[in-house]
Amino acid sequence: MSTSKPVPPLFQELFIQDGVIKNQVYNVIRDAILQGRLPAAVRVPSSRTLAEMMSISRNSVIAGYDRLMDEGYLVTRRGSGTFVSDCVPDSTVSGYYQQIKQPKEKPAVGRLNSDVTSLRRLCSESQKGNNAKRLFSVGVGCTDLFPHNLWGRLLGRVWRQSRQELGLHTDPAGYKPLRKAICDYIQTTRGVICHENQIMIVSGIQQAVNITAQALLSQGSEVWLDDPGYNGARGAFTAAGAVVRPVKVDINGMDIHDGIKHYPEARLVYTTPSHQFPLGGTLSLARRLALLDWAEANQAWIFEDDYNSEFRYTARSLQALQGLDKHDRVIYAGTFSKMMYPEFRLGFLIIPQALQEQFITSKYFSVLCTGYLEQAVLARFISEGHYACHVRRIRKACHERKSALTAAIEHYLPGKMTVHSSDSGIHLVCWLNDGISGKEIEAKANQLGMGIQSFERYCQRSLPDKGVLLGFANHSPQELWDGIRQLSQII
Question: How many CB atoms lie within 10 A of CB 162?
Answer without folding.
Answer: 14
